[in-house]
Amino acid sequence: MKRVLMAGLLALLGGSAQAQRSDGRFYLPGSFNWSFHRTYPDAERLFHAFDYGHAVLYERLWTSGADVQARLKQDFDFLTTDLLRRPPRFGIAEEAVMPGYARVAWRARQMFHWAHELHRQIYDVYADERVPGLAKAALVERITDYYLANRANAFTSTPKSMALMDDAPYSQVFRSDYPEFNGLIWAYHWLQVGLYEPLIGAESPAARAEGIRSTLGRFWAMMDARPARFPELMPMTAGVAPRFAARHPRAAAIFDNLHMMHDIISDILISDRVPRNLKAKAIEAALAEFRDATRNTMSIQEWLEMPAMMGGVDRMGGVAWTPPVR
Question: How much is the pTM?
Answer without folding.
Answer: 0.92
